[in-house]
């Protein structure tokens, strides 16, 4: 089995689509970071919608956006690559335009804008993974996918920091942020389209496939729904536990989120390269073990009370982030390695459906389990994650 033991920045850059495509990813992530964390605030403060109505409209947009994935998969199966990436960015331009055109109190236009933003956000990961799988092969492709995730997280974090600094400007600043986001999407789409990457699936060689046994795709997709809960732990579960149950300062939640972002940006590529000497399926199963161990660590930390419990939760969050990094570096890579070239787009679309579904339901599940006590929340997450890891192994 081929492995990647060193990080060669220039080779990694070209394996990820080249300099122009890297700039497109950075600009797109920066624009997304400017708006996505404050879309709820836009609905509440600018459009004067109630918080429940705004949240419901956003959730409906995300879920409805998943409906586009079969179409995206078929488009990718026909060989389109950079065109689909550019389209996923341009459809979000339409969402931003609708957002800016929405009059105060109009929930339907806001929901439609959230729908187009959701379509773009759901279509982009599959299109990006298909493009990288076309220009890179084997373990170099895994490292390139990891590099793209690190770059995107850096852009999202930078955009969120800029947007936070601009919030003092009130509704005018939020409208300006939305406008800048739209311009960023247009620039990113133009750069991505200019790469002109197109695949010929029927003629693609099978040399990228590992000789390891192929696990059932259904089991992998079902396991992914559970694995993806880890992405909402620092954003939903830990703030909920720290602020509402342990009465800690919100600074702790913010610090954990920042640490999560920094760790992903700095460690995603090195950890993926380090684990390239092992089968992808084994690495993904190991990620489940690390995540389950972190959930049990959170359970133990909450029993320490406010004094030691809060810093203990912060420490365990590092383990959870490592599990997230191992999962992110192996899951998409495993799908691209298992899928036959003519059906790569469909496989990635199905994988994104499972990811999007997990991201959509995890906040509701977490907020339903948290009031039942730490054992219900962390014990349940640990149990189902272990079951998912065993399904990946089988």
TrEMBL record:
- Provide the protein name: MFS transporter
Do you know which InterPro entries this protein is assigned to?
MFS (IPR011701), MFS_trans_sf (IPR036259), MFS_Transporters (IPR050171)
Q: What's the main place this protein lives?
A: membrane
Transmembrane regions listed in the UniProt entry: 21-44, 56-76, 83-101, 107-133, 154-174, 180-199, 220-244, 250-271, 283-301, 313-339, 351-369, 375-393
Which key words tag this protein in UniProt? Cell membrane, Membrane, Transmembrane, Transmembrane helix, Transport
Q: Which domain of life is it from?
A: Bacteria
Presence of keyword Transmembrane:
yes
An example GO CC term for this entry is: plasma membrane
Q: Which organism is it from?
A: Planotetraspora silvatica
Q: Which SUPFAM superfamilies match?
A: MFS general substrate transporter (SSF103473)
Keyword rRNA processing on this protein?
Answer: no
- Which GO terms of the molecular function aspect are on file? transmembrane transporter activity
* Membrane topology classification: Multi-pass membrane protein
Where's it found, cell-wise? Answer: Cell membrane
């Amino acid at each position: 089995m081929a492995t990647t033991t060193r990080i060669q920045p220039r080779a990694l850059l070209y394996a990820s689509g080249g300099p122009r495509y890297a700039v497109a990813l950075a600009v797109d992530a920066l624009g997304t970071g400017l708006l996505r964390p404050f879309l709820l605030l836009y609905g509440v403060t600018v459009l004067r919608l109630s918080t429940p109505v705004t949240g419901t409209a956003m959730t409906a947009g995300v879920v409805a956006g998943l409906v586009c994935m079969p179409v995206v998969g078929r488009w990718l199966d026909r060989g389109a690559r950079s065109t689909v990436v550019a389209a996923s960015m341009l459809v979000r331009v339409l969402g931003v335009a609708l957002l800016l055109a929405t009059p105060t109190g109009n929930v339907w236009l806001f929901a439609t804008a959230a729908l187009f933003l959701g379509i773009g956000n759901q279509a982009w990961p599959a299109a990006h993974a298909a493009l990288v799988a076309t220009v890179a092969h084997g373990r170099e492709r895994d490292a390139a996918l990891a590099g793209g995730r690190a770059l995107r997280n850096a852009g999202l974090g930078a955009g969120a920091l800029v947007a936070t600094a601009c919030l003092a400007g009130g509704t005018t600043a939020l409208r300006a942020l939305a406008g800048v986001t739209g311009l960023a999407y247009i620039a990113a789409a133009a750069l991505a389209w200019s790469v002109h990457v197109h695949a010929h699936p029927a003629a693609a060689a099978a040399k990228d496939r590992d000789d390891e046994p192929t696990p059932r795709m259904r089991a992998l997709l079902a396991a992914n729904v559970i694995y993806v809960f880890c992405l909402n732990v620092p954003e939903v579960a830990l703030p909920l536990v720290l602020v509402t149950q342990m009465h800690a300062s919100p600074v702790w939640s913010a610090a954990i989120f920042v640490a999560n972002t920094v760790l992903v940006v700095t460690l995603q590529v090195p950890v993926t390269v380090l684990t390239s000497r092992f089968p992808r399926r084994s690495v993904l199963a190991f990620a489940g073990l690390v995540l389950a161990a972190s959930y049990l660590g959170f359970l133990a930390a909450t029993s320490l009370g406010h004094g030691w419990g809060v810093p203990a939760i912060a420490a365990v969050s590092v383990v959870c982030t490592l599990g997230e990094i191992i999962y992110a570096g192996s899951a998409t890579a495993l799908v691209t390695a298992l899928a036959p070239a003519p059906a790569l787009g469909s496989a990635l679309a199905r994988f994104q459906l499972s990811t999007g579904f997990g991201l959509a339901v995890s906040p509701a599940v977490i907020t339903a389990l948290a009031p039942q006590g730490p054992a219900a929340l962390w014990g349940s997450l640990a149990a189902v994650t272990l079951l998912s890891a065993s399904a990946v192994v089988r």
